[in-house]
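Assess this one:
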Amino acid sequence: MSFSLGKIFKITVFGESHGKCVGVVVEGCPAGLKLKEKDIQKEVEKRKPGSSQIFTQRKEKDKVEILSGVLNGKTTGAPICLLVWNKDVLSKDYKKINEGLLRPGHADFTAFLKYGGFADLRGGGFFSGRMTLALVMAGAIAKKILKEKLNIEILAHTIEIGGKTARKAKISEIKRNVYKNEVRCANLKDAKEMKKIIEKVKKEGDSIGGKIEAICLNLPVGLGEPIFDSLDGEISKALFAIPGVKGVEFGRGFEVSKIKGSENNDLFFLKNEKVLTKTNNAGGVLGGISNGMPLILKVAIKPPSSISKPQLTVNIKKKKMEILKINGRHDPCIVPRAVPVVESVLGLVLCDFALRAQFIRRIF
């Protein structure tokens, strides 16, 4: 089992969707960082479903508690333990799952065989999207370190839902608009259309997926440790820890398979003795190392597997076919709530690499 990520800035997540709590232990945070619960709570609030009908109706306060590693408002260098308590739990909605009915698209089948039927699958257990709460809590610390020490900014926004693609947004629009609308789209007009798509599929008892773009600004040259700890490789690995992520591409991504080298190459030039590139098709990564240009990537997210439409499935305990109709509270689209999670995951990886490259010292 692997519930940890990172080498110097290392996190270990714990808990389950319907267990007592969800938490994370953060190791390697520099001592002397000013840190309060409200710093982390601010990021956690971005992930909460809110009052909209396009999100799950599970209402959790998600009040962050710091249990260790902080004294008098500053980090001590010891492991930081963060957690939130699960309060609004309705495990009865998962009775059929416990009886052996496999939800199509979920990890029920693989978890049942791998853990011999002992895995806690209520609400998805540790396979649940609720576990991303731990990533956001730890990511809040990482993002704070990166911003204060290196002025690194991490931005993410919804660029597609159900085939509806948003107009290309400026950095200023992303900063201004993303957290002003429910779908986390930088273009407010497109956001309204995306919301209508989500509402429609929800009424049909179905779900929908989409894409998120992330941009990291002010990265220094040199983050990444080839061959097997490349920047893009480690980011991709971490992003795939977010349930529902099915694809990651950097820069022009898969589009580069259709163009020529002369079209894809980012030409170098000098500006005030600094080496830059005229284009950024590589997405800010060369040879697995940051090249000083903005890190740009896209994440493809599948439609949530829990839908209310009846589906034929296997009862693995009774060894027979049965009809499954999933009840309970589920998101018809997880893309909007995944936006702050993507930001947090990028923060975790970048902070670890910045510490490894000694761009950030161990004492603040």
The mean pLDDT is 93. The CA atoms of residues 96 and 324 lie 8 Å apart.
